[in-house]
């Protein structure tokens, strides 16, 4: 019995019958909507100088965490950072909210990856459920926590 070898990078799982799941197409649509959202932010939103609150220009309510507790929520400043990056202010975007900065690049990269996997006949839902992909969830959680700590420190004047 020989040990199983990992799949080569270019050969991922595809559905046995060649058809893709509903989840596959949902992921593909959400990836496209993410890119469209970035384009809308870049076109219509002006980064709020407070470092948060840019989403209010899109008709969304203000952050209740800042209003009620005096500290930003984990997502505070993400929209502002994305708008800063979209306006070419990369350093300001990173300093304001590292998570927003990362998302400004991760969203289009994910959309390109999803399109590539789709064109190769892979099911995105199956791809994302692979153990090597699920490990990214832990790293993503760590990035969210570190970025939140960064934002709290900056908000409190640290």
Q: Can you walk through the features of this model?
A:
- There is one protein chain.
- The protein has 158 residues and is mainly alpha-helical.
- It has one domain.
- Helix content is 62%, strand content 0%.
Which helices and strands appear, and what pairs or packs with what?
Layout: H1 22-44, H2 64-69, H3 78-86, H4 90-96, H5 98-119, H6 124-129, H7 131-155
Helix pairs in contact: 1-3, 1-5, 3-4, 3-5, 4-5
Essential attributes:
158 residues; mainly alpha; 7 helices
Strand content: under 5%
Mean pLDDT: 87
Radius of gyration: 19 Å
Task: Give the helices and strands as they follow along the chain.
Answer: HHHHHHH
| Strand-pairing-aware structural class | mainly alpha
Annotation field: number of helices? 7
Helix content estimate: 55-70%
Q: What global shape is seen?
A: elongated
Brief overview:
With 158 residues, this protein is mainly α. It is built from seven helices and no strands.
């Amino acid at each position: 019995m020989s040990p199983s070898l990992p799949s080569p990078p270019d050969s991922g799982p595809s559905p046995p019958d060649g058809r893709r799941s509903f989840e596959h197409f949902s992921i593909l649509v959400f990836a496209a909507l993410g890119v469209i959202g970035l384009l809308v932010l870049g076109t219509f939103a002006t980064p709020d100088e407070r470092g948060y609150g840019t989403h209010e220009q899109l008709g969304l309510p203000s952050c209740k965490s800042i209003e009620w507790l005096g500290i930003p929520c984990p997502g505070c400043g993400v929209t502002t950072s994305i708008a800063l990056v979209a306006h070419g202010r990369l350093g300001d975007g990173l300093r304001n909210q590292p998570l927003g900065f990362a998302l400004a690049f991760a969203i289009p990269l994910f959309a390109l990856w999803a399109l590539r996997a789709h064109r190769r006949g892979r099911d995105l839902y199956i791809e994302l459920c692979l153990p090597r992909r699920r490990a990214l969830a832990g790293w993503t959680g760590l990035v969210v926590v570190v970025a939140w700590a960064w934002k709290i420190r900056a908000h409190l004047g640290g």
